[in-house]
Amino acid sequence: MSFLNTHSDGKKMVDKVFKAAIKAIEAKEKFGDDAVVDATLGTLFDENGVFVAYDSVWNPFDKMDKIEKARYARGIQGNPKYREAVYKWLFGDEEIPCEIIVSPGGAGAVSATMHNVLNPGDTLIMPSQGWGPYKTMANEFGLNLTKYNLFKNKGFDLDSFKETLNNIMEKEGKVLAIINDPCHNPTGYTMTSIEWDLLLTYLNDLSSKGPVVIINDVAYVDYCMNPSWKDHFLKYKNLSKNVMVVIAFSLSKTFTAYGMRVGAMVAISNNKDELAKFKDASIYSARSIWSTCNNSVMELFAQISSDEMLYTNYINEKQEYIELLKERAKIFISECESEGIELYPFTEGFFATLKVSDDTEKEALNIRLQAKNIFTVEVDGGLRIALCSVSKKKLRGLARKIKNVL
Ligand code: PLP
Hints:
The longest helix has about 30 residues, at about 310-340. By secondary structure, the protein is of the alpha/beta class. It is built from 15 helices and 14 strands. The N and C termini lie far apart (about 50 Å). Strands 2-10-9-8-7-3-4 form a seven-stranded mixed β-sheet, with helices on both faces. The chain has a three-stranded antiparallel β-sheet with strand order 11-14-13. Strands 1-12 form a two-stranded parallel sheet. Bound molecules: pyridoxal-5'-phosphate. The site of pyridoxal-5'-phosphate has 13 residues, from helix 5.
């Protein structure tokens, strides 16, 4: 008999990102920084290998009264000013029927939504190439997992998406699926507007058979190259009554505020009663699991987004890093093309992923790369390269080095 219950007995977290990052740190200690390509961490580093914490965010934070930093949040649902600021950040002046609940990062938003939408034994639907913790969360809530194939002919595989959701709807009478768009982790893909239109038409049709819930994980939305990508959210105005989209928003990447643990569930639906129930259940979950979120960063977000000067400083500083990511991607993607290295379809964002379908081959390749002081992260169907953390200097010639190991 264990102290733990049957569900938790034997649970052990092995985080592939942190495991790979530790190996990279050891290599840097042994061989020096210049000799190592550390493409493991999903956080921004500048061209000198220094962690990026935006001045435009953290200088105003330093000026904030200590009481704001010390006190509890104004409410479990999140500070009213923060919720208003999130609404404006995502939707501007448009009218979208939604409820906003603060969460500890995007992870909290994704996890609480799974918990409140599915019963243990139900099935979570995720992409074939997706963020690892989705699986951990599903397991934590006793959910089964099934995957749609993400790509076909260099674009979104709508047929697989439909087939997967149809199957689960037939069996379980309801679906919850995750779409990590734009700037997918780990592939860097962003779906086209037409792909979204087709997908949403399908979801509206499917909802005649039962409730359809989509988690739109937008952790990287503020790194889109298209400045008007957020117009995409207007498409959610036309959801059928039996469809709800929960946007998982996060300040981790948006504000380089990873450790502050602030995000939000932004639930959108034309079904007012269901929206109200989702809000109530989310507040209940918050109180029972993490209680309140970080007050000072909620206030900081409201302050920066409503002050013209602070906001302009922020946008300008972030834009420098969007440009940098673009330059890094250009180097790596074009060199991979020249070397004939296959990547998953890439558009933009923090990551690109080498395609290695066979698991044994993938592990072996990763070990060979590590022996050459190149550190990547093993993901489903490939090896992830974090463009956000590798300088242009180190990216130049990286494809050739990988090719030699291949
Ligand atoms: N979703 C994806 C795809 C991510 O890559 C991350 C962070 O790495 C998150 C969500 C959530 O991050 P956080 O909980 O720090 O906001």
